[in-house]
# Entry
Amino acid sequence: MSAIGALYSKLEMAQFGKANKLLGYLAAIFGIGLITLALAPFQTHINSTTVALCLLLVVLIVATAAGSRPALLASVLGVLSFNYFFLPPLYTLTIADPQNWIAFAAFFITAMIAGQLSSYARRRADEAQMQKKKIEALYEELKSAFAKASEAEALRQSEKLKTALLDAVTHDLRTPLTSIKVLATALLENESEHQNLELDLQSKKEFLETIVKETNRLNDFIEGLVELAQIEAGAFGLRLGWEEIPEIIEAALSRAERMLKGRRIKINLEENLPLVRVDSKALAEVIYTLLDNAAKYSPAEAPIEISVKQSQEGIVEIAVADHGPGVPKEFREKIFDKFFRIEKSESKAKGMGLGLAIAKGIIEAHGGKIWVAERAEGSGARFVFLIPIGDE
Amino acid sequence: MNEVKKILIVDDEAQITWALRRTLSAHHYEVRTAADGLSALETFNDFQPDLVITDLSMPEVSGLELCRRLRKFTQVPIIVLSVKGEEKTKVEALDAGADDYITKPFGMDELLARVRAGLRRSNQVKKQEETVLEIGDFHIDLATYQVFVRGEEVHLTPKEFELLVFMVRNYGRVLTHRTLLGAVWGGSYTEQTEYLRVFLRHLRKKIEPDPSKPVYILTEPWVGYRFNPFR
# Structure
């Protein structure tokens, strides 16, 4: 591409040069002719210095505009015109007065030198221009090469990410499937004729209950995936309405009722909270996820705190805090990535690694922000999110 | 003979260890579980199981590493729980000494069949007598180099004989290409799977009732072979 480009620009330059040169010669002829025609009627009234300077001007202009050869032509024509039309005896190429010989020679030399010098200056300027163009082209080429390289890198990264996500998804699908299949085949064998297995009623019930539980887990996971995919595709249709925050919290609490059984929940609501324009169901889900996490990762006897206040004009801040081990500093951002789970968490309850990613998606769709607050190590986790009150 | 067999289950997914413990216990096995390779090694020492079932991807010491470490001091049968797409790790685990694998999600019947095969083999190994191998349809006299399949004598070349003896001794186990090549031809041939295929084709022609539908030398796609002495 670059080789062809260079060739092309050279060709263009050459053509442009040819046309330009022809124009230069024409300018030399016309320029000198024009000055001669303009000044010839007054040849007896103006002195030869004025004429020489005017002609010299033409030589200079031609030299700067068209280069040394047209300038040479202009000089020669200028000399001839000067001699023929303006130096006595007029209309001959002879010169009578020796003083005029000197003027004639001085004009000739000045015209030549001035022409060469100015065309040299012009050439240098052209070269500098070319150099600049070359550098610019090189720069563009480099820039596009860099862009391509980083594009490839990004693609590779996203491929890697995709594989990692797929691994996580298949693992999360296969684990419940495996326990379902193991338990179901055991139950089936128990029912078969030549059984060598005897399950008591209690075991059978437990097996069936676990199968149902695992099926629900699978279903939750799939629903979570779908929801996340919708949020990521920007297709998550928010049903906005003016809502009361306490009502939303109430909805989240009642959904989490089973999980929060026997736990103390402290709720701190600022007075005169404004209505907010939000999707109440989605927001309740965010609060539910945070409550779910708090219940999973903190001791049963410790309270969970919900607080709501208007942090600045037009923005409401909602926080859910627990007294568990907290989120280690290095995971405070990653925890919102999908499928991310802190590996060696001691808690037996394992999440899907989707809840917080969905919560983040929902909050961001509302134009808000969610994060884990800085807190001293060991004093529990505090999740905070901001929601703009919204306008009509 | 009817002593209770002990099985150690290693998996970091609590639901899976729970389900396996409950179902294997119902089949009158004594079961203990571990959530990672490191605690599995500890449990192994005071439990002394007859068989180990382990997942491959686990925190701390992985299933692969667990196989390696166990093989340093015990020949106890190891069944690996793998998933589709983990082929490479699965083969590595078999090379590292695992006996068999089963792909998640699996049924209890499948797992039990493998558990029984593993236990039977380890029994056999204990009372193996070195001059005659007699298993299923095979009768091999190691002293006279005579091989009888279904009662009929079969003539084998020395390498075919060695290959068959190795497979009979390890019947029921999944034998990777690398294991077979290393055992019969030595370490420097472990990449020559084409070589192995030729020998197995000849061997199948001599021992299989129908070489196009083998019943003794079974192919485990992408992994290796499994020898089954029974029809």
In short: Chain B touches chain A through 22 residues (CB under 8 Å). Chain B is about 40% helix and 20% strand. The helical segments of chain B are 14-26, 37-47, 63-71, 87-95, 108-126, 158-169, 177-185, 193-207. Residues 108-126 of chain B form the longest helix (19 residues).
